[in-house]
Queue: 4 jobs
Job 1
Amino acid sequence: MTSDKQEKENGLPAGTPSSGDCELCRAPGGRLVLQGPRWRVVRVEDRDFPGFWRVIWNAHCAELTDLDAAERHECIEVVAAVEAVVRRRLAPTKINLAALGNMVPHLHWHLIARYDWDSHFPQPIWGARQREIAGGALQRLGIELERVDEELRQSLAPRSK
């Protein structure tokens, strides 16, 4: 368990079970958007993929089946709620949704807004770059991501209690 002092240092809720060698137990994992008792939503600051969020389960576990049925339902509902806001606000060509965790064995979902104009499309984000984006992807996106974050907070607030 983390202490209140650790919470101030790593941004995780007091009492969050952790593994000291896990990056997602030690730190929020991105720009914190909203944190509930069992999960948190962060925005990943990536210059090529500005529409990139993560849903991270706070307790240290590696797989979806490590959660009980109610927790799995809650986790997937949060992922779906984030996807709905991202689709509505950013109108991507596609949402990439992944729970890889190969390098960080801690349950988390990547939600990445993809566009037919992005630097790697149709390749995965870790694939070969297909093009350069004049002015950068954030400028091409044409929206302040803080507004999307605020809508995510409003949408998820009832679930975060």
Job 2
Amino acid sequence: MSLTVRFPANNLAGIATLLRLYLVLAVLTLVALLVLSLVDPAAAPQTAWVHAVIVAGFAALLPMRLRSASRGSVAALRAVGLIAATVFLVNVVEALWPGFVPMWMRSEMWVIAALMLGVIALVIRERL
């Protein structure tokens, strides 16, 4: 049995905006890696590609969960918060890991972490 409630659409607008920014950043990162692979392959190592593809996958998944939340699924809203927390934690750990990815990508990881922190805060605010 699934518990559903009606969340006003405007309450989820902030989360949707942050997730759109996250999606744009994920796509731009993939484009940057593609260009770098052609111009300077050393600047686009395999670890960066793996990270970017996983980040893009979550960027696609989160809006789907948010759509379910906008239809009233409490479980979907909880999933958005848990996924955002996981993405936040992984990006912080990987950004602090020396030599894991190029410096430009570390900056991208910090921006993603900040976006996910915002999503987490808004999910908590919504649940309260």
Job 3
Amino acid sequence: MRFFVTPWYAHRWPWFLMIGPVAVVLAGIVTGWIAFAQQDALVVDDYYKQGKAINQDLRRDRAAAAMALSFALRYDPATGKLAGSLLAKGQPLTGAAQLRLVHSTRPELDMRIVIEPDSRGDFAIDLPMLERARWQVQVEDMQRNWRLQGGWKWPQEQAVQLKADPVQ
């Protein structure tokens, strides 16, 4: 006596039960491809050298605090202008400075911009549309004697204000 008239592959239930394991295998393959296709941008090779450089960075932060530096930055996407001001003890700070906008996860979007404040400490430059992200903002003089840094959530925050905090 035959119980099955049709072979197993002609029934729906075996195929339905195989969907789960097949989906897991495919998801594992895609996850493996994503993990190995791109290098992790957050890991640095010379972590020891960067760790030693922390004391140098603290010296620059202390210099910025002694000068009572403040930096204001705002971006207008309608005009494509990045504008701001750089002040020391409430007075305009003139001379070239370097502005770095560091994307939180994609290093290819990082920007290094030379700004030259006018006699009032103000500057304005043309800038293409900023990516929606949490940017790290860093401003330093060209000789790297002082530094201001902070975070900026664009576009939730239209502007950012950085002030030198006293460093222990």
Job 4
Amino acid sequence: MKKHTDSGFTFDIKEDHAVVTEIEGDPQIVEIPEQVDGVPVTELGEYLFSVKNCQLIRIPSGVKKIGRYGFYNCRNLEELWFSSDFADLGSGAFTGCHRIRRLEVLMNSEQSGLKEILSEIGEELRVHLYGKVEAMLWFPEYYEEGVENTPARILMTEVHGSGLYYRNCFQGKVFHFLEYDKRFEMARAQESADFLREMVYGRLHLPTGLTDQAKTQYEQYLREHMEQIASDFIRQKRGEELEWLLHTYPLTSDQKELFTGLVSLADTVKSAEILSMLMEYQRVHFPSRRRSFDL
């Protein structure tokens, strides 16, 4: 075993692989190299990102293991990129990482270590799967609370939020889309309208594993809340999402008043791009009627 320092990283180099043991400084964005000295990087050492101020971390495909408390108190971490090759997560890896909100997962196969990471993070998460599996999944927040049962003199654990149930949608290391979609009624009862908007959009936009029954429930919610969802996209200046929404689920002739309200809102938020798209949409779906005169 030998140590090697390169590009701000210190490695323990073994016969056929390397372990990242230290990171110099306190960078906001970290991209772990795929190899060093001609050998692949396959492991991140214990406490590697502990107390760092990293906001975004990219881990290459070859990394299969993250050591104990690897991200301990990495309090500013918001986004993590890794691949399905990852399989071994040390205990307490994400302790203190309460700002993390996005996971980007390169799926080299249907199996992954995603379940292990989700089980460590109780915050609301957007998980984008790409590669051999394409999906946009949203996982609700959950937390556990210890409640004392005084007569029995025992401490019971109560789970709040639907997030834990969503994190159990796996068969081994393979994500089970059918089980995920079955939980939608639970999410409707417990989660916010903002969260449900993103969940519904994600499943309908990238419908991997989506059954006809599940599609129907998401589409029903979308149609019931079409005005609110479209308005939110305009306020957030998310033109691509709005265009997908209106072209995939076209407004009908009796929804012209709704459309007029969307145009007015786009004008209010000063989005020229969205206004232009809406004008073209109006030309196709709500054309002006020409007056005719009898001579």
